[in-house]
Design goal:
Layout lengths: L10 H8 L11 H23 L37 E12 L18 E13 L4 E10 L2 E10 L10 E7 L13 E15 L2 E16 L22 E12 L14 E11 L1
Antiparallel strand pairs: 1-2, 1-9, 2-3, 3-4, 4-6, 5-6, 6-7, 7-8, 8-9
């Protein structure tokens, strides 16, 4: 209960109230009855306020629920995109200076996260995003030049796999790590825009994969300037993710529905790329 800030009745207040008492014993004038009622109510409120005014135990405060737009121990807030009168929901972004983690034909078991940066190879081409976050529509296409040939990924169906993905295209959310949204293969990051769904890939114009899951995300810097991802971060000192907000990158992958626990991540196919140059258009 909120503490009452009005001061307690003073002797002056009590004298003013007593002056309204009628000279006839046992009877009060109407103004005296009103004054007495007000004084009594004030006294009760003050007593209740004193009993409820003790500061709360900080340890008893409930931690904010983790979610795509709520994380504990944040020191600032952001307006959500839809709070802006001019927000149109459209993101047109290109990714360049692209790297592939591993190759298309690595024998199992393989690691296609490549956090230590030792299994990366630069590839030519670009990744292009043109989506409407409000309508959950648009396109994602990566056309890359690999040693094996021209490789293309197309997002053909935008699809939500969990509620935090907001219909399949989402903007300005926390994902991965301990965010409560997405898996822990990546550190928690603010995602400027992200998409999920189903699609296909071709190699030299020939079908390579179909009905595979695709995910793209424009994030804070999950890799440092030497392309190393420091995740998990043993010296982590706060709830913030193991990212560098001075950098930005575009991660994307296509993965098979079939799993293989010998691989990391545990899919039969997991073709993973990231772009370290991100251009907003």
């Amino acid at each position: 209960m909120q503490r009452i800030t009005q001061p307690p009745p003073t002797r002056h207040h009590l004298r003013s109230a007593s002056s309204n008492f009628a000279p006839v014993p046992g009877r009060l004038r109407p103004t005296a009855r009103l004054a007495l009622a007000v004084s009594t109510a004030l006294l009760v409120a003050l007593l209740l306020g004193c009993s409820a005014g003790a500061p709360e135990d900080p340890a008893a405060a409930q931690e904010p629920e983790r979610g795509p737009r709520t994380q504990p121990d944040t020191a600032m807030g952001l307006y959500e995109p839809e709070q802006h009168d001019l927000y149109d929901g459209r993101f047109v972004i290109s990714g360049a200076r692209i790297y592939q983690v591993g190759t298309l034909n690595d024998p199992s078991p393989w690691d296609h996260m490549g956090n230590d940066g030792t299994t990366l190879r630069p590839v030519g081409g670009t990744a292009e995003i043109d989506v409407d976050e409000i309508a959950n529509t648009g396109t994602f296409r990566a056309e890359l030049e690999l040693p094996e040939g021209t490789y293309a990924i197309d997002l053909e169906e935008i699809k939500e796999f969990s509620p935090c993905q907001d219909g399949g295209i989402a903007a300005f959310l926390f994902e991965h790590g301990d965010s409560g949204c997405g898996d822990a293969n990546w550190p928690k990051s603010l995602l400027y825009v992200a998409g999920w769904g189903m699609g296909s890939a071709t190699l030299n114009g020939e079908p390579l994969y179909s009905d595979y899951e695709i995910h793209f995300m424009v994030t804070q810097g999950m890799r440092d300037r030497d392309l190393v991802a420091h995740y998990p971060l043993d010296s982590k000192t706060s709830e913030a993710g193991a990212v560098n907000p001075a950098l930005q990158q575009l991660d994307f992958y296509i993965r098979s529905p079939e799993t293989n626990d010998a691989n990391h991540p545990n899919r039969e196919v997991f073709d993973h790329f990231f772009a370290m140059e991100v251009t907003w258009k």
